Structures are given as structure tokens and as C-alpha cells.
Amino acid sequence: FGVFATRRPFDQIVNSIAYPNLPVRIVGFMPGVSSPGGPSHQAIEDVAIMRAVSNMTVIDVADAVEIRQAVRQIVDLPGPVYLRLKRGEIPVIFDEDHEFSLSSAQILVPGDDVALVASGMMLSAALAAAETLGGAGVSASVVNVPVIKPIDGAPVLAAARRADAVVTAENH
After folding, report:
1. Which pLDDT tens digit goes with each residue over 132-152?
2. Are strands 81-84 and 25-28 parallel, antiparallel or unpaired?
3. What is the pTM of this model?
4. What value, to the nearest 5°, has the Cα angle with vertex 2 and ends 108 and 75?
5. How far apart are CA 93 and CA 124, in angstroms?
6. What residues have CB less than 8 Å from 107, skipping those under 6 apart?
7. Rounded to whole angstroms, how far apart are CA atoms 132 and 121?
8. Which residues pair with 99 in a beta bridge?
9. H helix intervals, 55-135
């Protein structure tokens, strides 16, 4: 569970892994409010506290395609990584030709009225919202941001500059 992989061992993560910049991979499941275990098992602070840790890369992938690609890419990445995953049934969003990137966020759907910026399991909800909004005449862009730290701000800013409103969708 993400809450037990981040909050309880926080001092050890900071002092024994992050400060010496060791290549340790921390994988947390059942993020945010998705845990059936109730409030004691909900990792609602995990992204925030891992983002605050020096040298830590934070990744929140959207589906099984991104999981496979992210795992391969973080193997040789210098320094510590927190990989946030949703356990259980999540929709497959990407085709096998999708290219997950540790350095770039992607504008998946272009739009001009509202920018929906999403990570992890919330990407499918953002895509569904864009489709619903489109049916009502609202042009919504969707930006997939699987790497929270270091964040690739350029696609987010590009989408935000074109839009009248920006909404973030996070399970956090």
C-alpha cells in the first residue's frame, strides 16, 4: 500500500535512500482514495511527500502499457524513484505503440476552452470528461503527466495558455 511505502518509513527514505541518492525503487499500490481499506490505508499524501524529497523521481502511470514501459525505464535511472500504481482493474488507455517518457508529458487531446491535466488512474476520467464536454460544444484538451517530479511543464503551460480554465485530475 502506498501509504505504508511512503509515510511510515519517511525518515528512512529521506536519510538512507534520497540523501545518498541511491538507486532504490519504491512501489506503492492503492493510491489516494482508491483503497478499499478505508482512511488508514489511503495514500493521500504520498505524492506530496515524495515530491518534497531531494533526488526523488515520482511517477504515477495511467495503465498497464505505461507500467510495463516505466518499469523498464526506471531500472537504470540514477537515484531513487517512487512508482505509484493502482492495483486491480483499471482501463487500458494506450495502444502498445504508445511511448511512455520519463522526460515529457503529452497532450493527448488538443482543445481550446479548458485544459484537463491528469496523472495516473485519473487520466481515463479526464479523457471521458473531454469527450462529454466535446458533446456539449466545449473544446477540452487532455494532458497526460505521468512523471510528477521532475515535471515537464511545457505541455501543461502550452495547454493552459490556450484555455480559459485549467483543471487538474489527481487521485491525491
Report:
1. 999 999 999 999 999 999 999
2. parallel
3. 0.93
4. 65
5. 7
6. 141, 142, 143, 155, 158, 159
7. 18
8. none
9. 64-74, 123-135
Q: Cell for 138?
A: 466545449
49 sits in which H/E element = helix 46-51
- Nine cell digits for residue 91: 482501463
The CA-atom distances, in angstroms, between 118 and each of 25, 115, 169 are 23, 10, 5
- In sequence order, what are the beta bridge partners of 116? 142, 167
Identity (one letter) of the amino acid at 125? A
- 53: closest CA among 10, 24, 22, 102? 10
Count CB-CB contacts under 10 A for residue 78: 10
User: 65 and 94 in contact (C-beta within 8 Å)?
Assistant: yes
